[in-house]
Amino acid sequence: MAVTIKTSAFVKKLASNDRKTRDHAFETLKKYLSKKDSKLTYLEYQKLWKGLYYTMWFSDRPRPQQRLAKDISSLFTCISTTSNFTLFVKSFWDIICKEWPELDQWRIDKFYMLMRFIINSCFEKLKLENWDNDLVNNYINILIDGVLSGDRKIPVGVVYHIIDVWIDELEKVMFKDIDDDDDEEDDEEETDSLNDEKKSIVADIPIDLLLKPFKNLRKNALLKTLRLKTRDDLLLDSRLQDWGIDTGEVKPKKEEEEEWTGFGDN
Question: pLDDT value at position 178?
């Protein structure tokens, strides 16, 4: 099986326009990735992701795009070992960042969708493993060393999108199993009970660790706009406060001075 995955023929099957061929290739890949003895090198994972990337690239219609994005993202939950999972994550983000400058306005939305689905799937994987500390640490460190490093070489559009969807997708996964029908007529007692249930769930999840990359960006990102977006759109998200999470950030009464102040007198 390992030999088959390395061949261009296998990647072509993943990119096939024939749904049966593509579905069979995905099932084959899932079975391989789920084996504990499966082992690909970082370079091999990159080749695989290059093929998956262009599978998405050539998908044109909305419904097939969504189905394909779900198929691709589902691969993350079936990987059996921590080392394979982190290599798979690293390879994906490395390929996305490498290929991002070549994306045009007609294709960018489907890759935004793919990134959202994959972030969700990675949270699902962490949840399936009961938020294992070693697994979460490895996952977060891969992001900190790569796509969320704050390096100017990382496409800012990729980082911005991660910031935009991170809390949304974490919320979906954390509270997937509780009854929250968002009924505006719920009485105060029911609302308080639901909030308490959410806080209880959050207490068993390493939220601080999941927020670590963004605290680093807030402090160390070279771009001021990225530091401010991280603060305003993620670390000051009201849901974190609702869950009892203190990020140490306070909304300033007066926005930080803009770097451009005009030609006024000093």
Answer: 86
Query: CA-CA distance, 14 to 55, in Å (whole number)?
Result: 7
One-character DSSP codes across 33-93: HHSTT----HHHHHHHHHHHHHHHHT--SHHHHHHHHHHHHHHHHH--SHHHHHHHHHHHH
Is residue 59 included in any domain, yes or no?
A: yes
Domain of 47? 2-178+198-242
* Residue 66: CB atoms within 10 Å: 15
Please indicate, yes or no, if residue 264 is contained in any of the structural domains.
Answer: no
Q: Is the pLDDT of residue 260 over 80?
A: no
Q: Is residue 258 part of a domain?
A: no
Asked if residue 189 is part of any domain, the answer here is no
pLDDT in tens, 95-151: 999 999 999 888 999 999 999 999 999 999 999 999 999 999 999 999 999 999 999
> What CA–CA distances, in Å, run from 243 to 192, 205, 238, 247?
12, 11, 9, 11
Percent of the chain clearing pLDDT 90 (strictly above): 61
HSE-up (13 A, CA, CB side) for residue 19: 6
Domain count for the chain: 1
